[in-house]
Amino acid sequence: MKASFKKALLAVAVTSASLAAAAPSYAEITANASVTSNYIWRGLTQTTNDAAVQGGIDYANESGFYAGTWVSNVNYGADDVYSYEHDLYFGFSGESGDFSYDVGYLYYNYDDEANFDFAEVYGSVGYGALSATLSLLAHTEADEGEGRDYGFGQASYISVDYGIPVLNGAELGLHVGYHQGDFAEDFNGVPDGYADYGVSISKDGFSFAITGTDLDDAGADAYDNDSVKFAVSYGVDFEL
Question: What's one Pfam family the UniProt record gives for this protein (predicted)?
Answer without folding.
Answer: Gcw_chp
